[in-house]
Amino acid sequence: MQQVMILGTGPAGLTAAIYLARANMKPIIIEGSQPGGQLTTTTEVENFPGFADGIMGPELMDQMRKQAERFGAVFISGWVESVDLSTRPFKVHVKGMETYETESVIISTGATAKLLGIPGEREHMGRGVGTCATCDGFFYRGKKVIVIGGGDSAMEEANFLTRFATEVRIVHRRNELRASSIMQDRARQNKKITWSLNQTPVEVVADGKVTGLKVHDNDTGEEQTLESDGIFVAIGHLPNTAFLSKQVHTDEIGYIIVKPGTTETNIPGVFACGDVQDPIYRQAVTAAGTGCMAALDAERFLQKNAIHDWSQSL
Ligand code: NAP
Questions:
Q1: pLDDT tens figures, 205-224
Q2: Is 292 among the catalytic positions?
Q3: What is the C-alpha separation between 4 and 21, in angstroms, rounded?
Q4: What is the pTM for the complete model shown?
Q5: Residue with CA closest to ligand 1 atom 33
């Protein structure tokens, strides 16, 4: 049996691992299907405090992992298929491997940006195609960009990008936007934003680097290429919570609900941190912050509620 297991290795899970390892709690961390999380698909990170000259996303995650390992965190390369949280110790089933028993669990499995699945999209991810304007907008100073989507995220990303880009074109597959009227109004009033409605994206066009987006006009049936230096896909995120099989309370989209001001879920001993419980901020630094909170919450929980006397095994 383990004291604490951490599911997921983005900034939230790795920060929790650093804190718990330093507290001598020997955390076991299951890496997940994308070790390092979403930051491993970005290039330069310039807004994570402590790196005056910026740092590459994969390098930042590698450093966090090494920091956790230095204090004794144990990483297991695997993917959590399911969990049984009905009684303690909880059971964590890792696909193709053993079932672990643990006194507490920290869920930091993150969220995945939804993608269009069109040619060129994955190939240019992090190099002309992105899913986070706050992260990458700065690189498009003086350039033309496209934002795909008709929801609040797309409106927000487009408005944000007008701080840098000369033109921001919103491409949406329908004539009606899904975004709230206040967000729509803000975008419509922004003179740098242009619109391509009723246009379905069909291909990211590139010539060494991204040069545009091919779209299908749903009125005329014609295809054309819209010129652009960068493309932001803003069609929503999905929190990675399917493996929980509804044992932990979530909102209607699937984001875990935590008790405000804590990382506690509806199940005592189960904590959630990072993007899996955050539909709003979704930043590496906020994920790291909640990872720290989850470690401290788990530590305090075990001080009061441990089944096993862990002092004998240290
Ligand atoms: P969303 O509301 O689900 O909107 C997703 C948009 O992407 C929709 O317009 C949808 O088109 C489009 N889309 C989905 N799949 C597509 C595909 N395969 N190809 C082309 N287009 C596709 O997602 P969101 O904008 O991320 O917002 C999620 C939630 O967060 C919402 O509740 C939103 O209000 C909230 N949010 C709030 C704020 C804020 O208040 N500041 C900011 C961001 C998000 P259709 O409309 O045709 O389905």
A1: 999 999 999 999 999 999 99
A2: no
A3: 10
A4: 0.80
A5: 152
